[in-house]
């Protein structure tokens, strides 16, 4: 009876750890100058497919869920083994529950990082494809260039104006 309560609680806690990641690019792309919207839509679909193949054919959500399930299963197995070694059958059940709980918590963090990495790879592939097709892609403000009278000039925020001198050589250093 106690074991059923613990397993129900464990199941409820594991379901609350699930998160959802985006299933497409993080930012929107816009049609390139002079590009037809229907051509843009076709390129968008093609580039989404290209980006998906670049991250192994699994969506970001599938990669997140696989990472979470694997880490939780490993935690359960390790906890059961430790519990069985220290407390026999009852210890194995308690250890499995604790292992699943801690494995799920660790797995949620690992899965989040895995999902973020997959999303970054997906975004990079998608933006490269859309840019190559002649469309506009988002650029962070720190990377933006300003244009003045037809000549390209880097904005002052992106180019340092002062470089400090190198440190002096250590005492006793000879060239």
UniProtKB/TrEMBL annotation:
Signal peptide range: 1-19
Family matches, as PROSITE patterns: PROKAR_LIPOPROTEIN
Sections of the chain in a coiled coil: none
Protein's UniProt keywords contain Ribosomal protein: no
Name of a matching Pfam family: Gly-zipper_YMGG
Annotated spans, Disordered: 145-175
Feature: compositional bias, Pro residues: 162-175
Taxonomic lineage from the root: Bacteria, Pseudomonadati, Pseudomonadota, Betaproteobacteria, Nitrosomonadales
Domain YMGG-like Gly-zipper: 69-108
Biased composition (Polar residues): 145-159
Keyword line: Signal
UniProt keyword Transmembrane, yes or no: no
Organism in which the protein naturally occurs: Methylophilus glucosoxydans
Protein name: YMGG-like glycine zipper-containing protein
